[in-house]
């Protein structure tokens, strides 16, 4: 029974209408205003009116009164909505704390300008935000060689991470440049679980992964994995994406900073040190040698008749000669504490640490011979060149920075005067 059908007010007016109509009809009949036939017709009309009235009432009730099932469904929906709102209200403090913590992490993250420090800090904070993770892997993407390289890993258990170049899900993220969530790897149609090292060797069932990318420019991939099924939610995937977006921006800045630093320290043509950063390194090495009582050899070299090369073949060939010289010199000097720089024009400078006078002589002669035998091909011609060198030894030849430079410079010009393509030492 509906609310309209049960309404006492509705039924009351219906009954009053019938009683009044019948009473008036009989009153008119009693005073002779109506005949018996007319009275019967009036009563018949009243019955018909009531019949149609009741039928219309039922039709209205049926059309405009909701069923009990509909009411119950609406009540259930409202209860579910209230339950969700209540759960949200209860989780707001925890979410607020997480957002505040995330804000602090981002503030700290953007302060780094070293790539390795960015990777390490990012990995450490992901451990805090995803305690259910069994492993966290961060891959750097080498754009030149077009491969992934594992640069950071966290392992909750004693396991071996063999996918140093990534797994099939990392390649998917790299290819599509999209975040990825997998609730059960064995049931995911996108991947062949038999081809996954993580699934086969570490029994990984669920993970979330996101690219470290700026638009289409990808710097790496982050993967967080768990042995449990459905270990991660969409909210956690969105949280990971916040980490990777900020991390990508910071990493790109670190790369640009490193490039700027290299440009500020290295000669644009030859790639070796510029004069000022080289001299700073030299001062440091002389201080260290003074403390450890070791020797440092300082060499100055100059390309013989370089102006003639430029005048004969052009400045572009002269630049190639300098690049060839720098490449050979840098290879011979090496990186074990030694350094080489372009001192200006066609003049280069280098130092060798932990050496003796005899070793320095042998080394300098070796450089001279390699450079004098080197050549360039230009218009079917072989273009050769030679260098003159002056080499001074610390502390025998000089005990301070400026004096050592002056001795090496005077020895270089001595080699020039004595015929070029020569190495000069003090005796």
Written description of the protein model:
- 55% of the residues lie in helices and 18% in strands.
- The model is unreliable at 1-6 (pLDDT under 50).
- With 427 residues, it is an alpha+beta fold.
- The chain has three domains: 8-64; 114-262, GAF domain (Beta-Lactamase, 2-Layer Sandwich), CATH 3.30.450; 275-424, Alpha-Beta Plaits (2-Layer Sandwich).
- A five-stranded antiparallel sheet has the order 2-1-5-4-3, with helices on both faces. A five-stranded mixed sheet has the order 7-8-6-11-12, sandwiched between helices. Strands 9-10 form a two-stranded antiparallel sheet.
- It is rod-shaped, with a radius of gyration of 45 Å.
- The N and C termini lie far apart (123 Å).
Q: Please count the helical segments.
A: 12
What percentage of residues falls in helices of 4 or more residues?
55-70%
Please name the fourth-level CATH homologous superfamily of the largest domain.
Reverse transcriptase/Diguanylate cyclase domain
In round numbers, the mean pLDDT is 85
Query: How is the main sheet built?
Result: 5 strands, antiparallel
Q: Looking at CATH, which topology of the largest domain would you report?
A: Alpha-Beta Plaits
Regarding CATH, which class of the largest domain? Alpha Beta
CATH architecture of the largest domain: 2-Layer Sandwich
Number of domains: 3
- Principal-axes geometry comes out as rod-shaped
Unreliable runs, pLDDT <50, ≥5 residues? 1-6
**What would you report as the Rg, rounded to the nearest angstrom?**
45 Å
Arrangement of strands in the largest sheet: 2-1-5-4-3
Q: Give the tally of β-strands.
A: 12
Helix and strand pattern: HHHHEEHEHEEHHEHHEEHEEEHE
């Amino acid at each position: 029974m509906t609310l309209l059908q049960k309404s006492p007010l509705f039924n009351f007016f219906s009954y009053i209408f019938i009683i009044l109509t019948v009473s008036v009809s009989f009153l008119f009949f009693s005073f002779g205003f109506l005949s018996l036939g007319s009275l019967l017709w009036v009563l018949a009309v009243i019955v018909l009116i009531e019949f149609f009235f009741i039928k219309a009432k039922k039709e209205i009730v049926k059309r405009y009164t909701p069923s009990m099932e509909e009411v119950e469904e609406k009540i259930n929906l409202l209860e579910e909505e209230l339950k969700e709102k209540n759960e949200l209200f209860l989780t707001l403090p925890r979410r607020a704390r997480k957002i505040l913590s995330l804000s602090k992490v981002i503030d700290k993250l953007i302060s780094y300008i070293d790539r390795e420090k960015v990777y390490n800090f990012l990995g450490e904070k992901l451990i805090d935000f995803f305690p259910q993770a069994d492993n966290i892997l961060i891959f750097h993407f080498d754009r030149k060689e077009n491969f992934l390289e594992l640069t950071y890993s966290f392992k909750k258990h004693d396991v071996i991470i063999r996918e140093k170049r990534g797994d099939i899900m990392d390649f998917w993220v790299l290819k599509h440049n999209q975040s990825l969530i997998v609730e059960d790897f064995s049931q995911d149609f996108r991947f062949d679980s038999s081809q996954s090292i993580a699934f086969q060797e570490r029994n990984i069932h669920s993970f979330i992964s996101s690219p470290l990318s700026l638009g289409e420019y990808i710097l790496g991939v982050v993967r967080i994995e768990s042995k449990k099924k459905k270990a991660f939610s969409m909210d956690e995937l969105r949280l990971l994406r916040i980490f990777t977006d900020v991390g990508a921006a910071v990493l790109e800045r670190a790369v640009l900073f490193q490039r700027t630093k290299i440009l500020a320290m290295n000669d644009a043509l030859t790639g070796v040190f510029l004069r000022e950063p080289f001299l700073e390194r030299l001062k440091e090495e002389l201080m260290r040698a003074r403390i450890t009582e070791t020797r440092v050899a300082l060499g100055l070299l100059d390309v013989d008749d370089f102006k003639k090369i430029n005048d004969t073949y052009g400045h572009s060939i002269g630049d190639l000669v300098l690049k060839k010289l720098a490449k050979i010199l840098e290879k011979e000097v090496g990186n074990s504490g030694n350094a080489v720089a372009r001192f200006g024009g066609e003049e280069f400078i280098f130092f060798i640490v932990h050496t003796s006078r005899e070793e320095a002589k042998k080394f300098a002669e070796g450089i001279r011979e390699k450079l004098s035998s080197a050549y360039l091909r230009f218009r079917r011609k072989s273009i050769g060149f030679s260098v003159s060198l002056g080499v001074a030894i610390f502390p025998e030849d000089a005990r301070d920075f400026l004096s050592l430079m002056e001795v090496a410079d005077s020895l270089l010009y001595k080699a020039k005067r004595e015929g070029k393509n020569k190495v000069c030492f003090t005796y």
